[in-house]
Amino acid sequence: MADSQSGQGFDAKAFLRTVPEEPGVYRMIGVDDKVLYVGKAKNLKRRVSNYFQRTQPSPRIAMMVAQIVRVDVTPTRSEAEALILENNLIKSLAPRYNILFRDDKTYPYIEISGDAFPRLAYHRGAFAKGARYFGPFPNAYAVRESIHLLQKTFQLRTCENTVFQNRSRPCLLNQIKRCSGPCVDLIDADSYAADVKLATRFLDGQASEVIDDLTTRMQAAADRLAFEEAAACRDQVRVLQAVLHRQFVDSRKDEDVDILAAVEQDGTVCINIAMVRGGRHLGDRPQFPSGAAVAGAQDALLAFVEQHYAEHPIPARILLNQALDPIREAFAELSERPPGVLAPRYAAEKAWMEMAEKNAGLAIQARARDTGRMAQRLEALRDALDLPEAPQRIECFDISHTMGEATVASCVVCESGAMKRADYRRYNISGITPGDDFAAMRQVLERRYGKIAAGEGQCPDLILIDGGKGQVSAAAAILAEVGLEQVAMVGVAKGEGRKAGLETLIFPDGREGLALGGASAALHLIIEIRDEAHRFAITGHRAQRGKARIGSRLDDIPGVGPARRRNLLAAFGGLDGVRNATVEDLCRVEGVSRKLAEDIHAALR
């Protein structure tokens, strides 16, 4: 029986007798030692046995099992170790039958720091010890809207510690009543701590209790004739009530729920996760799986749950639009206290799911439109440049400097019609005559394509150069030197008055320049890539120029070396802070004597 369900020669019964009942990772191996699938298990024997039953849960699993010639298992000491090992193996092996949800960005959180006067901040990434984090939120907009509300209501500080520690007068946020001014002692520590406590309770979903507390405080202030305090409490209550009333869907109770809608349309699967925190609907985020040969909505949803909730907090309830039992089993392995996994039952829950499903469908349609539009633009570019096929990888270069100062070159990458930011690179240019753009272009291309010619990195199908004949000639010479002259290349020369749509394309073989016209889809794509290269170059140049100028102003002062310069900038949050500091302030910086403080103060006046 087992042999008919797996690859020829694989004796599943004999193999299963050797599998331990321990946590670990298993790898399904096909012909030529190709890894088909990597999975983790709380109990290896029970999990692997499921693959060799008479019936399979999906066509994808059945297809995979039919190709198995060997199964390798790696027991681990704990489920946590199994999770880490599985994640590492999937990333390194990219198995054909693993469904992957690639999301380079972590979900955003709201952070309340552990300082004496805690800071309210937007946060992504690893958690810092001592701080409190609230979330995750589905997108940056939801976080920033919540921070704006908390500023307006509780007036917590949002400034960096370097700014907070060196303020001598209230900032603009205090003047517009978005910060209570703890930096200049406009609020005492106990009162500020009380505001922080209210804010954390609100973020924990206790909005109605916070409103009740503020109402009680307002009435008490009015009874003792403290009318300004009562008015402040009244304004806070009104803001919070307005927020709660503004919610499109409100569960009418403080609860944390995730709504997972798995939708399949025209062969594309989307998992849309909507988040409800404290009874407030915070928005949603669509996710698209990749890496699986065959995957339906149920398979994709199971894969999403296993990956997402291995790294993010699990709320009390999960609402689904697919079969519940496989997801319940997945949560049983992920958590000792699994959440309630349910289908929508009440009006609010059904409304949430309806929104999530609708948004998933819209995301699929938008993705299809974008894919079709990208393909059309790439085909138009192929026709315009007379290329053998549409270029799938395009790299574009630009040079930025100010009168030759802090020259920076950028390389941006467009892959399959979409910008691939992970492959962007900046190059600091040195050793050339200031302002020599041709030499700068030669240097960046030599550094970029010298490595590619040596077998490192991916060769593009088309190279775009932001510039005219001089830059194109310099680029062509370098490509010939490294043996990549066969790669298509074109320069993008600005039109009259630098107006978009009037650009001329310059070819390295001496052909007459080509003006496609503002209506050309090919030119639209070229301009979009060229503008992105320009943006990326100029932001890098400005950062380099700013560093150079800050450093030069301080480096010109005798006695200020790299260490003291670093200490000064860190203590005062930048050159402006150093310039505005008094001699006494400067003396407090490590390594700065009174004599040196006086010299710095005089030099920066």
Average pLDDT reading: 82
Number of β-strand runs: 20
Counting H and I runs of at least 4 residues, what is the number of helices? 21
User: N-to-C terminal Cα separation, in Å?
Assistant: 88 Å
Portion in strands:
15-25%
Q: Specify the overall morphology.
A: globular
Q: What is the alpha-carbon Rg in Å?
A: 30 Å
- Assembly type of the chains comes to single chain
The stretches of 5 or more residues where confidence is low (pLDDT under 50) are 1-5, 244-252
What is the structural class? alpha+beta
**For the report, how would you describe the main beta sheet?**
7 strands, mixed
Helix content: 40-55%
What does this structure look like?
- Helix content is 45%, strand content 18%.
- By secondary structure, the protein is of the alpha+beta class.
- The strands form five sheets. Strands 14, 15, 16, 17, 18, 19 and 20 form a seven-stranded mixed beta sheet that branches.
- Helix 6 (140-154) packs antiparallel against helix 11, helix 14 (347-385) crosses helix 17 and helix 15 (437-453) runs parallel beside helix 16 (469-482).
- It is globular, with a radius of gyration of 30 Å.
- Residues 1-5 and 244-252 have low confidence and may be disordered.
Secondary structure elements and their pairing?
Elements: H1 2-5, H2 12-16, E1 24-29, E2 35-41, H3 44-49, H4 59-65, E3 70-75, H5 79-93, E4 100-101, E5 109-112, E6 120-123, E7 132-134, H6 140-154, H7 161-164, H8 172-175, H9 189-203, H10 207-223, H11 227-246, E8 257-265, E9 268-277, E10 280-287, E11 289-290, H12 297-308, E12 317-320, H13 325-334, E13 340-342, H14 347-385, E14 393-402, E15 405-415, E16 418-419, E17 425-428, H15 437-453, E18 462-466, H16 469-482, E19 488-493, E20 504-506, H17 521-555, H18 562-572, H19 575-580, H20 583-587, H21 594-603
Parallel strand pairs: 8-12, 12-13, 14-18, 18-19
Antiparallel strand pairs: 1-2, 1-3, 4-11, 5-6, 5-7, 8-9, 9-10, 14-15, 15-16, 15-17, 19-20
Helix pairs in contact: 6-11, 9-10, 10-11, 12-13, 14-17, 15-16
